[in-house]
Write a structure and sequence with these properties.
heterodimer; A: 299 residues; alpha+beta; five-stranded antiparallel beta sheet; four-stranded antiparallel beta sheet; B: alpha+beta
Chain lengths: 299, 153
């Protein structure tokens, strides 16, 4: 057992600390110092540094860059700065009203203290397969804006992840913000997470977002957490549900497909068999709830 | 690094190494030993302090990252004698060994500042980041309810 193997009272290594105030400065620092880590909320990075799992020589704090923070509604899109605190997103009236699914996902992360510290960019770029914030953004088909030295690009968020702790970002790139298109009339979503306690990281989680027109599912996105090396979107299940009239049989076959489509492992939080089994029930419930909410919103 | 932090209403200037944690700065340099080192990895909430009025974990915040911020600890809450929240914790027997109590009281203050009359579910949800190993949660919920009543008068 690795409990108490490390003194978590202190950070045992020294590093240089940088506080850029513009994105350009930040990117230049990232380029200049190779052995670097970005400091956002620090809720994952600091414990890892305490345990010497990470020993960066340079810490680049992005919190003093005002343009990386905030939630803004522009036309039919909502922009969320990468350094926006999770708690700020949870409290935002815009998010509660326009992106309730994301609100639900964020609310389930850690504790109030953790959400006061943690940022959405950190939750995503940490590339944990269990990240609830990332799951919500995947189900909402968010676009990730990446900035590097003389470079700006956009990628769909589900294309960002490579494996646990790994994204497609190069060491000198950072995520500046996320853009989400506001779901149309007749949309609904559902997020469910199962954990040992409500504070715990999810053993398995699912987010479903759909748009219903004339009693048919027009758009549907299904994403599961902690079931693969990355948060996983399931296009097969989405396709199966799209443009169909919803019946119990359809939902049941979709749930079976979801369970077949995941590749869970056995770890400290649960076994692969448990996750396969739980996925069926959770998918049924999440699809049904999202469908009911969307139908209600259609009226 | 030169770091300026307003602690419990008073401005302090420090010369700190970047790897110093806010909790250790408060405890070792200012003798504010109310906030406790518990788990060190963000599970227990014993080190909770208010950073610009929001509860955060002192053991996972770099001191240099608090530069220019306001920090309030349990000592700041109890500056003019016992705070009504502390009175309520005493009256309701919500303190057993007491190690988690400063963290709980700081979180309770933030909760009641934001939501003056929370129901039980809201209280449990808000305080879920604070762990009491004596498991005295029932009395803690009672204490928060009592403090909410007192503060609303």
């Amino acid at each position: 057992v690795s409990i108490n193997k490390f003194n978590t009272h202190i950070i045992p290594t020294r590093f240089e600390y940088h506080t850029p105030t513009t994105i350009t400065d930040a990117v230049e620092l990232l380029k200049k110092y190779e052995n670097n880590k970005i400091l956002a909320g620090g809720t994952d990075l600091i414990p890892k540094m305490k345990q010497r799992l990470l020993e960066p020589r340079h810490l680049i704090n992005l919190k003093k860059i005002p343009e990386l923070r905030g939630i803004e509604e522009k036309g039919d899109k909502i922009h969320i700065g990468a350094l926006t605190k999770l708690r700020e997103i949870e409290r935002s009236k815009i998010i509660q009203k326009k992106l309730p699914l994301l609100h639900d996902c964020i609310r389930s992360i850690g504790s109030v203290q953790i959400r006061n510290m943690g940022t959405i960019g950190g939750n995503v770029c940490n590339a944990s397969p269990a990240a609830d914030g990332a799951l919500g953004l995947i189900a909402l088909d968010a676009i990730t804006h990446i900035v590097g030295l003389n470079l700006e690009k956009e990628v769909k968020i589900d294309k960002l992840f490579m494996g646990p702790g790994h994204t497609i970002l190069s060491p000198s790139e950072l995520v500046s913000n996320f853009t989400v298109r506001i779901p149309e009339e007749g949309s609904g979503g559902c997020f469910i997470s199962v954990g040992r306690t409500s504070l715990d990281i999810s053993t398995i989680s699912i987010a479903v977002q759909m748009t219903v027109k004339r009693s048919r599912i027009q758009v549907c996105r299904v994403a599961l957490g902690s079931v693969a090396p990355t948060p996983l979107r399931l296009p097969d299940v989405e396709e199966h549900l799209t443009d169909r009239k919803v019946t119990n049989v359809l939902i049941e076959t979709a749930a079976e497909m979801a369970s077949d489509g995941i590749k869970p492992i056995t770890d400290i939080r649960g076994t692969a068999e448990y996750r396969k089994q739980a996925a069926i029930g959770m998918a049924k419930e999440a699809i049904t709830t999202a469908w009911e909410k969307a139908k209600e919103a259609e009226r | 690094m030169k770091t300026e932090i307003m602690v419990n209403g008073r401005k302090h200037e420090f010369e700190v190494e970047p790897n110093v944690l806010l909790l250790n700065l408060l405890r070792d340099k200012l003798n504010l030993t109310g906030a406790k080192y518990g788990c060190g990895i963000g599970e227990c909430g014993a080190c909770t302090v208010l950073l610009d009025d929001e509860p955060v974990l002192g053991c996972m915040t770099l001191a240099v990252d608090a530069d220019g911020c306001r920090v309030q600890t349990i000592e700041g809450i109890a500056e003019e004698g016992l705070h009504p929240i502390q009175e309520a914790y005493l009256d309701e027997g919500a303190v057993q060994c007491g190690f988690c109590t400063p963290g709980f009281i700081v979180s309770t203050k933030a909760l009641l500042d934001e939501n003056p009359s929370p129901d039980e579910e809201e209280i449990r949800e808000y305080l879920k980041g604070n762990i009491c190993r004596c498991t005295g949660y029932v009395n803690i919920v009672h204490a928060v309810q009592k403090a909410a009543e007192t503060l609303q008068k």
